[in-house]
Specification:
CATH superfamily: Gcn5-related N-acetyltransferase (GNAT)
Order of helices and strands: EEHHHEEEHEHEEH
CATH architecture: 3-Layer(aba) Sandwich
Shape: globular
Strand content: 15-25%
CATH topology: Aminopeptidase
Radius of gyration: 16 Å
Strand order of the largest sheet: 1-2-3-4-5-6-8-7
């Protein structure tokens, strides 16, 4: 399934996306907040192994999207990736990585809004959980604008959460302010 925004599309990752994902994961600017300031140094063989593992892990699961998706412009230029998992407590954990070429252009904000709107509307997810780096000011600002709040726990000191109503209120407030 594809999710469409005004400028972006979110679609399931395909095998032919591996070179883009490899470049994204090997980019230290993208991965520094994930703990890889020099990138992941993933080889083509590493990417192929990841692909096979990911495909086998999700075979036969009917979901909103595959748990790994590509964010691209409407005309198909790749911008980033989005991954998610839903746990037994109806919580989704998500991760978004964007190519530095599209930073500060609103693509991540649009992708997050489109994805969260669909996730809340079509699944039983009650809460979205993310664990951004406290040093990633842009990510923290993006999360706040979309209804997330800090919700640290003993084991997860950087956890942020968003419940359906917080997201709806944030989006309604943003749309009314425009």
């Amino acid at each position: 399934m594809n999710l469409l925004g005004q400028r972006i599309r979110i679609r399931p990752a395909r095998h032919e996306d591996l070179p883009f994902l490899q470049a994204l994961w090997n980019d230290g600017a993208v991965m520094r907040y994930q703990g890889y300031p020099d990138g992941m140094h993933a080889s083509e063989a590493d990417m192929e192994r990841w692909w096979l593992t990911a495909q086998n892990a999700h075979r036969g699961i009917e979901t909103l999207l595959t748990p790994h998706a590509i964010i691209e412009t409407i005309d198909g230029a790749p911008l980033g990736e989005l991954s998610y998992a839903i746990d037994a407590k109806d919580r989704a954990s998500i991760d978004v990585k964007m190519s530095p070429a599209c930073w500060k252009k609103g693509y991540a904000a649009e992708a997050l809004r489109v994805f969260l709107r669909e996730l809340f509307a079509t699944t039983g997810v009650k809460k979205i959980i993310v664990e951004p780096s406290p040093d990633n000011a842009a990510a923290l600002k993006l999360l706040e604008r979309n209804g997330f709040h800090a919700a640290p726990t003993e084991n997860h000191p950087n956890r942020w959460e968003c419940e359906r109503q917080n997201f709806a209120d944030a989006i309604t407030g943003a749309e009314n302010a425009a």
